[in-house]
């Protein structure tokens, strides 16, 4: 059922590719409109497929939890990464593309279900900070710093809170957070850079939020 549909779409695109070089301006405009229709159909198919994949993953997680007596109607943090929901994968992709508004939407959706997932909350907080929404970002970073089990996640959160404080000219508090980040992760280069920048008394400070450290936490 699906294969003939995609075969027909490919045939249409092949014809469009062949016709385009020798088309008149009006014909090219018509081809462009036809391409827009195909693109819209393609986007709808991808969204529907991702939704289907998420439901299949949800069923698999529920089945596995039921087999072990662990399902209680509320979702725990999915482990391993192969089981992570589609919004996480999409959100991470948006983050890498610097599409922070779209990224935040994905992780807001995710945290409505997995409220204790520190890595997802860290992505949301970092997106909010890149959007200049520092108060909201700081709130999420505080939650991660206080609840995350992994020192690396806590270090990223403390470094980011230091950046928020530095932006607000609270340099003493910023330095405290940067030092805390370095205690948790002595090799965290961004935290050291930020601390040194705050101590140099420069008129302007170039801060490193820790985005690269965050995206390096998992492949993808």
In short:
By secondary structure, the protein is mainly alpha-helical. Helices cover about 70% and strands about 0% of the residues. It has 2 domains: about 1-75; about 80-220, Tetratricopeptide repeat domain (Serine Threonine Protein Phosphatase 5, Tetratricopeptide repeat).
Give a verbal description of the structure.
The chain has 220 residues and is mainly α. It folds into two domains: 1-73; 78-220, Tetratricopeptide repeat domain (Serine Threonine Protein Phosphatase 5, Tetratricopeptide repeat), CATH 1.25.40. Helices cover 72% and strands 0% of the residues. The chain is built from ten helices and no strands. It is elongated and about 65 Å long. The model is unreliable at 68-74 (pLDDT under 50).
Round the Cα radius of gyration to an integer and report it: 23 Å
Class from helix and strand fractions: mainly alpha
- Main sheet record: none
Average pLDDT, rounded to a whole number, is 80
**CATH class annotation of the largest domain:** Mainly Alpha
Number of domains: 2
Q: Compute the number of strand runs.
A: 0
Helix count equals 10
> What string, H for helix and E for strand, traces the elements in order?
HHHHHHHHHH
Strand content: under 5%
CATH architecture of the largest domain: Alpha Horseshoe
- Helical residue percent band: over 70%
What characteristic shape results from the CA principal axes?
Answer: elongated
CATH fold-type name of the largest domain: Serine Threonine Protein Phosphatase 5, Tetratricopeptide repeat
Fourth-tier CATH superfamily name of the largest domain = Tetratricopeptide repeat domain
Distance between the termini: 31 Å
Can you tell me the residue ranges where pLDDT is under 50 for at least 5 consecutive residues? 68-74
């Amino acid at each position: 059922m699906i294969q003939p549909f995609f075969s027909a779409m490919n045939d249409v695109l092949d014809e469009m590719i062949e016709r385009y070089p020798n088309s008149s301006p009006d014909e090219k405009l018509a081809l462009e409109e036809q391409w827009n229709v195909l693109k819209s159909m393609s986007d709808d198919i991808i969204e529907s497929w991702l939704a289907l994949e998420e439901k299949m993953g949800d069923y698999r997680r529920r089945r596995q939890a039921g087999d072990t007596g662990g399902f209680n109607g509320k979702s725990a943090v999915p482990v391993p990464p192969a089981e992570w929901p589609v919004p996480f994968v999409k959100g991470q992709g948006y983050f890498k593309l610097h599409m922070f508004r779209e990224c935040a939407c994905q992780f807001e959706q995710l945290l409505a279900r997995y409220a204790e997932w520190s890595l997802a909350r860290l992505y949301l907080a970092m997106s909010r900070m890149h959007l200049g929404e520092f108060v909201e970002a700081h709130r999420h970073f505080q939650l991660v710093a206080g609840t995350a089990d992994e020192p690396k996640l806590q270090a990223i959160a403390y470094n980011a809170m230091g950046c928020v404080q530095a932006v607000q000219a609270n340099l003493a508090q910023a330095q405290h957070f940067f030092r805390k980040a370095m205690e948790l992760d002595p090799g965290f280069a961004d935290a050291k850079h930020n601390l040194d920048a705050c101590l140099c008394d420069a008129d302007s400070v170039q801060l490193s939020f820790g985005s690269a450290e965050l995206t390096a936490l998992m492949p993808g």
